[in-house]
């Protein structure tokens, strides 16, 4: 009986040591991956901001309450302007330097691809991940009406 208890105790010690080794290995792997992830900058951005602004569609004007911005790694951009109506536009984006808190945008379309032409700026807060403001001026190629957006986040 004593010999059996010693054998069981030895097996338990071996299992505990294996669990310890696996735990340390797992922790080391997690820390290594976190370091690699922290070293890489994510070039895409998805951000939402509540605030105040206007969109002028020709002679009509609507208040903007919320802006949703999606900037993708392939330099495509999507903007959803939430007002009494929701307006969806898309285009491309570029950033001059990492220190710059503004992003140049070129608007190329809305519900129909290629029907808008113009551009503007997406302004970021100091963290470069949150929206501070958005403004752009475009022309609808079909109707020749100007569209102007001015938005400031709260």
Question: What is the topology?
Answer:
Blueprint: H1 2-39, E1 45-57, E2 60-71, E3 76-83, E4 86-94, E5 102-109, E6 113-124, E7 131-140, E8 146-153
Mean pLDDT value = 79
Order of helices and strands: HEEEEEEEE
Task: Report the β-strand fraction as a percent range.
Answer: over 45%
Q: What would the principal axes of the Cα set say about the shape?
A: globular
Helical segment count: 1
Helix content: 10-25%
Q: Which residues form runs of ≥5 with pLDDT under 50? A: 19-29, 31-41
Distance between the termini: 74 Å
Q: Main β-sheet, in a few words?
A: 8 strands, antiparallel, barrel
Please list the strands of the largest sheet in the order they lie side by side: 1-2-3-4-5-6-7-8
Alpha carbon gyration radius? 27 Å
- How many beta-strand segments? 8
Give the domain tally: 2
In short:
The protein is α+β, with helices and mostly antiparallel strands and 154 residues long.
Please describe what this structure looks like.
There is one protein chain. By secondary structure, the chain is of the alpha+beta class. The protein has an 8-stranded antiparallel β-barrel. The chain has 1 helix and 8 strands; from the N terminus they run αββββββββ. It has 2 domains: about 1-40; about 45-154. Helices cover about 25% and strands about 50% of the residues. Strand 4 (about 85-95) and strand 5 form a beta hairpin.
Key descriptive features of the protein:
globular; 154 residues; alpha+beta; eight-stranded antiparallel beta barrel; 52% strand; 1 helix; single chain
